[in-house]
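Hello, quick one for you while I still have it in my head. No rush at all, and the record is pasted right below.
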Amino acid sequence: MDYQSIFSALDAEIAKLERIRELLAQNGKVNAVISRTLVKRAGIKKTVKRVMSAEARARIAEAQKKRWAKTRRAAKKAAAAVAVPA
């Protein structure tokens, strides 16, 4: 790779970052279409908050309650075995 191609790649990256800085300096007054395009070009991924349905939360809660009950039963058996040595 020669120096000229390295310099041109650096110049392109600098130009892209300067454009993004200009848009950010406008305090969020950027056209949504332009900002989406720049985000796609820059490769920035937007974090998406994942939301669970009420049904899924209920299933998870029920499964956890079953695990806790299983642990309590096992602890109760262990305590009974220790308390009554035969």
